[in-house]
Structures are given as structure tokens and as C-alpha cells.
Amino acid sequence: MYSFTYQKPDSVTAARSAFEAADDASYLAGGMTMIPTMKQRLAMPSDLLDLSAIPDLKQITMADDHLVLGAMCSHHQVAMAPQVWGSIPALAALAGAIGDQAVRYRGTMGGSVANNDPAADYPGAVLALDATIITDRREIAADDFFTGMFETALDAGELITAIRFKKPRRAAYMKFHHPASRYAIAGVFVAEFRTGVRLAVTGAGPVVHRLDDFEQALQKSFSPEALEPLRVDEAALNHDHHASAAYRAHLVKLMAQRAVKAAGIAS
């Protein structure tokens, strides 16, 4: 690990000022990716700005039909919050199945979304729930946020402060996970709103994405059977030592059907 300067700002304004004053700073949320990357000398920020002392980033509130989660909410906090269970139980269940207990206590929702690991769970929820990513500068729609593998629409130094989720009529998330890491080899989050259905796939491809034909079929009939005639194009899916593209295509359809069934049972 290279040497660096550790700072712990107590406000978003202070964090932004520290970032702009440093030569090459990085924000530190839960550290689930940043710390291992630094230990392997794959990253060498001049300053590490720990966001854990900013209370505004850990709040959970309800605003009309929206659930607003602070970016520094831990997976455990999301999984246990009554507001989350009362409005979007599928999101609470998703958070409760991330990694192990140590990861859930340290890892944060905002850190996961900003990192945009192709196998992470939260990007699927953000995209399927038509969420809005709130930063210290602007608001970004989920459809515009995830731009590529480990890439997002965030500008240099831009800090996620909260994520605003639309409350669906019903929703569910199902994933086929790696037995060790519990990252999604293929995961599907489905949400039904008054205006239609959104379905997002994570883990299977280089970046989280929606399946238009699946959404259209479910808008006509929200049932697992509605997806039976459809197939998933494996051409754009990952092929690695965890699973072939063809197997991932099979898993996406299977997880989608299971998620639809679970959403129907929970509604």
C-alpha cells in the first residue's frame, strides 16, 4: 500500500473542499473495494476522505411515495430499517443478502452504486425502481447513471449524497449467487408501478441493464408464464470461469420468472 493522507470530514461541504484541495483524492465509503485495491497497489490516492463522520449521509426518510436513503447507509441499516420494509421490502431483502455479516455492517449503498461493480446487487434495484441518484451537484436518473463496467455518469469529485427510490406496487429480487462471495452471477430485480413494469439484470453482463421485451410481456400479464416464450440474447453477456454466457442467459430468464412469482406472492 502506498502512503496517503487520511482525512475525516464532518460535512459534505468539508469533503468537497478537501477533495478539491488534494492532489488526487478518493472518497472512502465502506471501503469494500477501495481498501483491497489500495493494498494491491492498484490505486494510490494522495488523500483518502472518510465519509463515515457525516451524519446527513446516513438518514432514511419518506417523501410522498418515495423512499430516500442516505448514501452512507450500510447494507445492514437498509436491511433492518422499518421504513424500507414498510415501503419497498424487496430492497430490504436485497440488502440483507449481500455478502456476510461483516460486509453488511461496513459496506454502504452509495459506495456500491458509485463503484458499479457489474455483479453488485444495488444497481439492479436502482435501475428497476426508477431511482434518482442525488449528488452534491445535481440529480441523475437511474437510466442515465450506469454507463459501463465500473463506470457511471459521476464527474470527478462528484459525491453521491442520497438515492431516491420510487415506491412500487410490488417488487422482488432474485439472484443466483457465487457461493463464496455471494456476488450475483445473474440477478433480476422486477418492479411493477402504476405506469408499467421495469426489470433490471445484474451480474450477467458488463453493466446492469433492462430487458425491454420482458417488461412489455409483464405489462400485459404479470406472471412467470408471460416470460416463457422469450429468450435472453447471450451475445452481450459475460463468459468467464464462473459461468458461460449461455448459462447466464438461462439464469436470467429463470431468475426473472422467480422474481415475478415472488413479487406476486408478496403483493
UniProtKB/TrEMBL annotation:
InterPro entries on file: CO_DH_flav_C, CO_DH_flav_C_dom_sf, Diverse_Substr_Oxidored, FAD-bd_PCMH, FAD-bd_PCMH-like_sf, FAD-bd_PCMH_sub1, FAD-bd_PCMH_sub2, Mopterin_DH_FAD-bd
Record's keyword terms, sorted: FAD, Flavoprotein, Oxidoreductase
Domain FAD-binding PCMH-type residues, every copy: 1-170
SUPFAM superfamilies cross-referenced by the UniProt entry: CO dehydrogenase flavoprotein C-terminal domain-like (SSF55447), FAD-binding/transporter-associated domain-like (SSF56176)
GO molecular function, a single term: FAD binding
Superkingdom of the organism of origin: Bacteria
Protein name per its UniProtKB record: Carbon monoxide dehydrogenase
Lineage per the UniProt record: Bacteria, Pseudomonadati, Pseudomonadota, Alphaproteobacteria, Iodidimonadales
